[in-house]
Amino acid sequence: MACFHCGTTCGEAPLTVADRAFCCWGCQTVHELLQEHGLGHYYELGEAPGVRRAGEGTPDRYAYLNDPGTRERLLEFAGEETCRVTFSVPAIHCVACVWLLEQVFRFGEGIGSSTVDFAQKRVSIRFDPRRTTLARVAGLLDSLGYAPDLRLSDLDRTSVPAVSRRLWLQLGVAGFALATRCCSACRATLVSMPSAGLPSGTSLGS
Asked: CATH classification of 63-179 is 3.30.70.100, yes or no?
């Protein structure tokens, strides 16, 4: 008998819910989550489209992601109201995976939009740091069977660190002010230039 969620052979003593067999507690839990949130039509996207969880994670499995140094290295954008992180998720393998991962906002408070790069097996998620944490976001993905592939190389990457929204605004205002001053200076230079060769009554400032 095959697992209704992931298609894995259930063995001699499968877990059963409403005449549906599951190979493990993880698959049964994900199935119940989908039903609870009105996403049962996920199973219409393919036969046994789910991903089997590698195992039951501990509540503090991803707690280290809340360390300020680790958090800064992983976040691509860090604002007071919105943060963005991209995780590598090797378990992504079909259109059902993409669909489910783009519905994660339904499963956790403070989670916003998510986009999936199917070719690269990556998911980018926006979340509100006032209502949830990076560790909870990673834990939610894990609970759905899409555990993030977190490696030390990801933490040591030489990408540009997350920049706050306030700093971006300050840079934008400074750039606008500089452009305005340059335009004013150029106009003043043109006005002060001699108008030799121009028709009578014409000036560069007109």
From this structure: yes
